[in-house]
Design the sequence.
């Protein structure tokens, strides 16, 4: 708008032109070519195409020059749409769209499937909080359906609380984040490892070689449910590995299975300039190899002590427990130059809770109820790359980037052997 043009206000007459029908190339250009004859200004445009059907909306100023009238514009637009076997609706009004209310959020909904009933429940819950749904668009259609609602009129925290309660009852995953530039900022993502980045419990894999898997698994399960102090349980489990030949590390590394979508998540985040790391109650003997394999920026875990080629049954160095994970998140954020408000933490166990609550966005991934209830949001499908949708990244964008990098379409999702979750592992929790 030039300095000589008056600023649009609520008193300026406007027309909302809606075009709908079978999509084909040239419709958008044709509409604005038709409108150009009336010297109108374009205030807003929205267009969506679903299954070959287009809905195109243009908010324009009413014609005020060269003797053109609103009636002539209406007749011309209707004549043009009829020639293309389209339909048109033209609504008179004043000013721009109704201003969006204060308090703006992005609400991401994941469903497998996403039913009409659950969508209705989410929409009704948004309305009940005083929020208004301004826009909706699809982020992904597989392996889950993901849609995003742009909501205004209610602050993020009460909206998140209301939708978390609703989501728990209808079986969908809902994430609520505040709108703003920070959502697009280069950020830091820190993940738990066992049963988050990978499908396995590493200490149980070591225990299997030591012949004490059942005893270790029971202690692990109790710790992840929050029934045992993590550090105490760690020492108890590691003690059972005393005397095990350290050469077993290579066997365990070879048997590690990445969680479906792990490669895609890390690869996509790195493309966007994110820094990515892991903090684990497991062991550096495995996380160091994962850091190299995936090109991670940060990695921290406990270290199994080795003497004369055998495990001693002890750990050395700083213990990575519940408090330690949050402490490491802060450390990595400082090293990355990223404020905590722009960090994302992903985990599944009780020892991840401090980390999840310290991060700007804490994501409980296939977690136990105590973790799901305390985290900002929960994802309960066995695909780690669905976290991308919570950040507003669409499936199409991911696939296009993979294609440009020479990866086959559906590379990881359909072809890679670690895409399929192990039987019985979809809902497990970890260290």
Sequence:
């Amino acid at each position: 708008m030039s300095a000589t043009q008056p600023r649009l206000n609520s008193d300026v007459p406007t027309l909302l032109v809606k075009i709908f029908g079978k999509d084909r190339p040239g419709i958008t250009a044709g509409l604005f070519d038709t409108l150009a004859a009336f010297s109108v200004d374009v205030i807003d445009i929205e267009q969506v195409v679903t299954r070959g059907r287009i809905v195109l909306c243009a908010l324009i100023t009413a014609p005020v020059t060269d003797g053109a009238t609103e009636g002539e514009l209406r007749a011309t637009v209707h004549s043009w749409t009829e020639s293309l076997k389209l339909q048109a609706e033209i609504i008179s009004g004043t000013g721009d769209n109704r201003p969006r209310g204060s308090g703006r959020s992005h609400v991401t909904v994941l469903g497998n499937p996403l039913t009409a009933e659950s969508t209705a429940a989410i929409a009704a819950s948004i309305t009940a909080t005083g929020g208004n749904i301004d826009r909706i668009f699809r982020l992904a259609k597989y392996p889950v359906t993901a849609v995003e609602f742009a909501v205004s009129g209610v602050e993020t925290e009460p909206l998140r609380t209301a939708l978390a309660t609703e989501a728990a009852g209808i079986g969908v995953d809902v994430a609520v984040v505040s709108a703003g530039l920070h959502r697009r900022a280069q950020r830091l993502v820190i993940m738990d490892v066992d049963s988050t980045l990978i499908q396995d419990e590493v200490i149980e894999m070591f225990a299997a070689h030591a012949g004490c898997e059942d005893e270790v698994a029971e202690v692990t399960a109790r710790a992840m449910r929050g029934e045992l102090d993590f550090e105490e349980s760690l020492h108890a489990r590691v003690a059972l590995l005393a005397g095990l030949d350290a050469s077993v590390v290579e066997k365990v590394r070879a048997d590690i299975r990445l969680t479906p979508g792990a490669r895609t998540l890390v690869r996509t985040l790195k493309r966007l300039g994110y820094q990515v790391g892991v903090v684990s109650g497991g062991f550096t003997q495995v996380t160091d190899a994962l850091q190299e394999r995936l090109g991670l920026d940060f990695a921290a875990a406990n270290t199994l002590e080795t003497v004369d080629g055998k495990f001693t049954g002890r750990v050395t160095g700083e213990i990575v427990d519940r408090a330690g994970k949050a402490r490491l998140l802060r450390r990595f954020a400082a090293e990355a130059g990223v404020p905590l408000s722009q960090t994302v933490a992903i985990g599944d166990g009780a020892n991840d809770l401090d980390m999840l609550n310290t991060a700007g966005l804490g994501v409980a991934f296939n977690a136990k109820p105590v973790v799901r209830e305390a985290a900002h949001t929960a994802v309960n499908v066995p695909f780690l790359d669905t976290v991308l949708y919570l950040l507003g990244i669409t499936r199409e964008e991911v696939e296009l980037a993979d294609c440009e990098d020479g990866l086959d379409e559906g590379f990881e999702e359909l072809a890679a052997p670690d895409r399929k979750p192990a039987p019985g592992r979809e809902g497990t929790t970890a260290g």
Q: What stands out?
A: The chain has three domains: 13-94, 104-179, 188-415.
